Amino acid sequence: MASERLTIALICTECKNKNYYQVRGKKKEYKLELNKFCKKCGKSTKHKEGKA
Ligand SMILES: [Zn+2]
After folding, report:
1. Could you tell me which Pfam families the record lists for this protein (predicted)?
2. How far is the CA of 23 from the centre of ligand 1 (A)?
């Protein structure tokens, strides 16, 4: 059986660093966009979903 899971990365929109990894279903109903802490920027920034 094919996996329905997909690993995605949460990428800082400011420095493009991949800070978080997350597993989600394959269905893409929406794009994730979250405010997360970026170690590289040293502050909370917007993170977008991208390829892991
Ligand atoms: Zn950053």
Report:
1. Ribosomal_L33
2. 21
User: What is the Å distance from ligand 1's center to 3 Cα?
Assistant: 31
Bridge partners, residue 46, by sequence? 35
What pairs with residue 32 in β-bridges?
none
Quick: pLDDT tens for 6-51.
889 999 999 999 999 988 888 766 677 999 999 999 999 999 999 8
Q: How far is the CA of 42 from the centre of ligand 1 (A)?
A: 7
CATH label, 5-51, candidates 1.10.357.10, 2.20.28.120, 3.40.50.20, 3.40.50.720: 2.20.28.120
φ, ψ of residue 25 in degrees (nearest 5) = -70, 165
